[in-house]
């Protein structure tokens, strides 16, 4: 059973607020000043603002995550590192990528991070955070080159970046400001992983410095698939040249990493495990299912390798420059060109049901199942339960982009005005090549199953019963190649009048999409080239290249944000903000929302968000607190690939976001709690859900940490949790809340050598984050994703 977390516990946590944000100081350098400013109210904000501003003077909700904070939270993926950011509901159960991220009640109607932009060094990884099977976090790896992770939530992000009305997460790299480096190795103690991180930065001369680093790793991952599922690495480097009036910095990055992607898995509706399949540690992946035969975008027979998993291949070059032009003028420019491609390969249970009924649905009444491979190959299947599985076989042919953000700032005494122009191109070229298989419900190298009709006819080939997905109407043999361009001029101004700071900004995004897309066509093909047409080969799905559909539309939307901050005293400030933003829709409009001439209606092309915020920042002695009340109205058009459902909705959400820190002697307590009340207020396609809570939206989410610091290290726990939420928008099936406890300990053996122990999900808690079903089925089996069971790792780090 999932252990429920009561609202009483969360409310008491709100009252005591022993927690915080993400601005941890090194335990060796904690000072009175550091303790008083534990959430970084004195630091300069650089993300999502026109010009660097002290947090205490700003009217934005901003937080920062340090490498020390990451170690405390024991993340097993990049998205898990974001769980400790206030206001972020991060469903990071997909593996190293494919996470769903919601911000302050803004919806996740399909997948990804639609209203949030994930950046590296101030520029977006992708222009759209919810590309089908191309979520931005798939192309991000956090390693020892990371200096800090800065985040902004709320309406101020509307004018700071395109397609980011909900917020920005910016992963900022080290730049060699000190002559230092490190090398560390991490090994899994109860799961198979081995990873080495390295980084080094130094000055070349008085005006030049560099930083280089990355990681390599291999292993099975938290859930054993029966093969090496995680393999690859990353290398990043930058070179900075300083001048009397500014600097120029060159960035390069190479990422080629294969990691297993977890999709919803079979379990009982209360989260408990089906016999033979552990919901916390098993996966439907198997050594008996490593390759799939398919027709590619051009109709050629090819093979996909399940071991590719989520395989981002990124080669990017970026340039950053900042110069003082004199007479209080400053120019800044960021540019990056990225060559991006890869694969998304995973297995999705489409149905978990009685084995006889599944066999009859394929081969007719009286059909039976036999083992297609494995130890029992050729024998009669001996279980009452089987799975219909679809191979989510997607090739990301080209996700390349070119981005440039240029801004010019003029300062007048206590005021400044920034004029900026942002341009970007984003390619979305991918091919879906899905097939259908039968498998046993078994977590340890499940075998494939074949269907034999009552007359002896074989209806499948080595577990494959269809080239395509007829169970879903052969929806998902697709190819599309579309290019998206964005142009966005913007103006931001701020002034300080004594203790009062005012700021305002306006941005106009315009863009166009061009290209084509093609669906499926059925035909007879001898896929295995044996000269015999088997049952699955009678109707093979391929791309209908003879009938491509045009993509040819444009969009435009205006964003604005107005904020005020009043510093009541040195340790107390209040702020307010009103914002209007937008988010252009991309590939999820295809196959349903694009007209015959390639056009798209205005209401479908852009989703708009209105937001209102008020908050306070307060510190006293060794306590710091940042509180924000928020309200939002969101219009959304969307499409979900697994359910094949379009959405046309309006949402409302209100809530309170708290983050804080408190020091007591050698103890420090940090964390954040967010209360959200969200509602579907309009639905043009499914009015029955009006008044319901959006799916997977919990009343409370929280991240709490307590740590004891001593001379040679620290020990502590980090709690990440959520109260109950609904699986789907019909508000029938609900998930209990859960608290995931992560433990950590570090010890300094020498000044340069340290060891650390991290335990993710210490108490082996089961916590469901999503499910395909909206109601409990007759057999009580759902397809859902849960947090991984307990995993323990040890790290040895040498600093030089």
Task: Please sum up the structure shown.
The protein is mainly beta and 800 residues long.
Write the layout of secondary structure elements.
Elements: H1 7-16, H2 32-36, E1 44-45, E2 53-54, E3 61-65, H3 67-73, H4 78-81, E4 88-91, E5 100-103, E6 116-120, E7 123-124, E8 146-153, H5 157-160, E9 167-173, E10 180-188, E11 192-203, E12 208-221, E13 230-243, E14 246-258, E15 265-268, E16 291-295, E17 301-305, E18 310-326, E19 329-354, H6 355-363, E20 368-371, E21 385-398, E22 401-412, E23 415-433, E24 435-440, E25 449-452, E26 464-466, E27 477-497, E28 500-518, E29 520-523, E30 540-543, E31 549-569, E32 572-584, H7 602-605, E33 606-620, E34 623-640, E35 645-664, E36 667-683, E37 700-710, E38 713-722, E39 725-726, E40 734-735, E41 738-748, E42 753-760, E43 768-771, E44 781-786, E45 791-799
Parallel strand pairs: 6-9
Antiparallel strand pairs: 1-2, 3-8, 4-5, 6-7, 8-9, 10-11, 10-45, 11-12, 12-13, 13-14, 14-18, 15-44, 16-17, 18-19, 19-21, 19-22, 20-25, 21-23, 21-24, 22-23, 23-27, 24-26, 27-28, 28-31, 29-30, 31-32, 32-33, 33-34, 34-35, 35-36, 36-37, 37-38, 38-41, 39-40, 41-42, 42-45, 43-44
Using brief descriptors, characterize the structure shown:
single chain; 800 residues; disordered N terminus; tonb box; Beta-barrel_TonB_sf; mainly beta; transmembrane; ion transport; 25-stranded antiparallel beta sheet; globular; five-stranded mixed beta sheet; 45 strands; cell outer membrane; 5% helix
């Amino acid at each position: 059973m999932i252990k429920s977390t009561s609202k009483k516990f969360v409310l008491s946590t709100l009252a005591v607020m022993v927690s915080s944000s993400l601005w941890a100081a090194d335990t060796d350098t904690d000072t009175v000043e550091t303790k008083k400013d534990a959430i970084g109210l004195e630091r300069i904000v650089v993300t999502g603002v026109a010009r660097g501003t002290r947090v205490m003077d700003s009217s934005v909700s901003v937080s920062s995550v340090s490498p020390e904070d990451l170690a405390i939270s024991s993340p097993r993926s990049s998205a898990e590192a974001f769980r400790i950011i206030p206001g972020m509901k991060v469903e990071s159960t997909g593996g190293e990528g494919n996470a769903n991220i919601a911000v302050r009640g803004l919806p996740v109607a399909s997948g990804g991070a639609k209203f949030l932009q994930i950046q590296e060094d101030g520029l977006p990884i992708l222009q759209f955070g919810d590309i089908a099977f191309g979520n931005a976090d798939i192309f991000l790896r956090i390693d020892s080159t990371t200096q800090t992770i800065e985040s902004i939530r709320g309406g101020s992000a509307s004018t700071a970046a395109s397609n980011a009305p909900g917020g920005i997460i910016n992963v900022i790299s080290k730049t060699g400001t000190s002559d230092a480096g490190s090398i560390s190795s991490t090994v899994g103690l109860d799961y198979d992983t081995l990873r080495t991180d390295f980084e080094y930065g130094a000055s070349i001369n008085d005006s030049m410095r560099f930083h280089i680093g990355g990681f390599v790793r291999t292993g099975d991952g938290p859930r054993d698939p029966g093969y090496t599922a995680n393999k690859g690495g990353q290398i990043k480097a930058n070179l900075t040249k300083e001048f009397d009036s500014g600097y120029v910095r060159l960035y390069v990055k190479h990422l080629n990493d294969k990691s297993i992607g977890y999709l919803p898995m079979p379990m009982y509706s209360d989260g408990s495990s089906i016999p033979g399949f552990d919901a916390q540690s098993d996966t439907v992946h198997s050594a008996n299912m490593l390759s799939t035969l398919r027709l590619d975008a051009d109709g050629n027979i090819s093979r996909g390798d399940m071991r590719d998993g989520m395989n981002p291949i990124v080669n990017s070059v970026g340039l950053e420059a900042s110069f003082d032009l004199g007479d209080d003028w400053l120019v800044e420019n960021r540019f990056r060109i990225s060559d991006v491609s890869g694969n998304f390969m995973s297995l999705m249970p489409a149905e978990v049901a009685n084995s006889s009924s599944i066999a009859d649905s394929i081969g007719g009444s009286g059909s039976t199942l036999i083992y297609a491979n494995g130890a029992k190959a050729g024998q009669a299947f001996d279980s009452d339960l089987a799975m219909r599985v679809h191979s989510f076989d997607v090739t990301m042919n080209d996700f390349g982009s070119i981005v440039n953000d240029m801004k010019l700032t003029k300062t007048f005494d206590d005021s400044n005005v920034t004029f900026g122009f942002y341009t970007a191109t984003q390619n979305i070229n991918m091919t879906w090549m899905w097939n259908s298989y039968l498998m046993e419900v078994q977590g340890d190298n499940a075998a494939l199953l074949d269907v034999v009709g009552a007359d002896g006819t074989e209806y499948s080939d080595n577990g494959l019963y269809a080239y395509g997905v007829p169970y879903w109407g052969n929806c998902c043999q697709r190819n599309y190649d579309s290019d998206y361009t964005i142009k966005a001029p913007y103006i931001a101004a701020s002034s300080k009048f004594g203790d009062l700071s005012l700021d305002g900004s306006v941005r106009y995004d315009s863009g166009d999409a061009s290209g084509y897309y093609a669906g499926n066509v059925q035909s007879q093909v001898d896929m295995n080239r044996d000269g015999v047409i088997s049952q699955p080969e009678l109707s093979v799905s391929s791309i209908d290249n003879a009938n491509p559909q045009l993509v040819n539309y444009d969009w435009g939307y205006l964003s604005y944000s107005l904020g005020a901050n009043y510093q009541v005293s040195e340790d107390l400030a209040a702020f307010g903000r009103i914002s209007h933003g937008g988010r252009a829709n991309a590939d999820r409009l295809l196959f349903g929302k694009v007209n015959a001439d390639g056009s798209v209606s205005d209401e479908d092309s852009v989703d708009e968000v209105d937001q209102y915020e008020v908050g306070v920042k307060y510190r006293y002695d060794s306590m710091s607190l940042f509180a924000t009340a928020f309200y939002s109205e969101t219009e959304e058009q969307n499409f979900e690939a697994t359910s094949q459902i379009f959405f046309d909705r309006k949402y409302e959400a209100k809530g309170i976001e708290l983050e804080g820190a408190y020091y007591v002697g050698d103890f420090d307590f940090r964390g954040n709690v967010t209360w959200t009340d969200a509602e579907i207020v309009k639905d043009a396609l499914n009015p029955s859900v009006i008044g319901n809570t959006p799916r997977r939206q919990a009343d409370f989410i929280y991240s709490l940490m307590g740590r004891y610091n001593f001379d040679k290290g620290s020990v502590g726990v980090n709690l990440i949790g959520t109260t109950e939420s609904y699986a789907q928008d019909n508000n029938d099936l609900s998930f209990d809340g859960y608290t995931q406890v992560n433990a950590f300990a570090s010890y300094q053996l020498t000044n340069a050598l340290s060891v650390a122990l991290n335990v993710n999900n210490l108490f082996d808690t089961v916590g469901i984050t999503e499910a395909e079903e909206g109601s409990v089925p007759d057999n009580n089996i759902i397809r859902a994703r849960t947090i991984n069971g307990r995993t323990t790792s040890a790290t040895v780090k040498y600093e030089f």
